[in-house]
Amino acid sequence: MKVPYWPPEELAATVLKTGALFECIDEMPLSVRSANCLKNADIDYVGQLVQKTDQELLRVPNFNRLSLEEVIEALTGLGLPLEMDLSVWPGPTKREPDAQVYAHAR
């Protein structure tokens, strides 16, 4: 089985330029309300957000048109649209704490 290359050619420039897909929602210029709605829907990273459609976001409890406009504006600032096909996106990775960092901190 061939493992897909990440990022696909058509996204490579955007991903390398911004690195935004791996940013936390908390780092976006969103209101507390919008950010909380997204987090409650288990959308924690920009890469998860850009895969959603307008309609999917509007079905999130307490997420309204104003929140949608806010998200679209923030994504536009990053050069990213909604409804991106990131089917081969590896997703966010959580780094394990570096044991050496803790050893030097003592």
Question: Which helices and strands, and how do they pair?
Answer:
Blueprint: H1 9-18, H2 32-40, H3 46-49, H4 54-58, H5 65-77, H6 99-105
Organism: Bradyrhizobium diazoefficiens
Protein name: RNA polymerase alpha subunit C-terminal domain-containing protein
Pfam families: RNA_pol_A_CTD
Number of domains: 1
Q: What CATH architecture do you see?
A: Orthogonal Bundle
Topology order in helix (H) and strand (E) letters: HHHHHH
Low-confidence stretches: 95-106
Please report the number of helical segments. Answer: 6
CATH class: Mainly Alpha
Fill in the CATH topology: DNA polymerase, domain 1
The N- and C-terminal alpha carbons lie at a distance of: 46 Å
Largest sheet descriptor:
none
Structure description:
With 106 residues, the protein is mainly α. The chain has a single domain (9-105), classed as Orthogonal Bundle (DNA polymerase, domain 1), CATH 1.10.150. It is 45% helix and 0% strand. The chain contains six helices and no strands. The longest helix is centred in the last third of the chain and has 13 residues, at 65-77. The model is unreliable at 95-106 (pLDDT under 50).
How would you concisely characterize the structure shown here?
By secondary structure, the protein is mainly α.
For this entry, give a set of tags.
106 residues, mainly alpha, DNA polymerase, domain 1, 6 helices, 45% helix, RNAP_asu_C
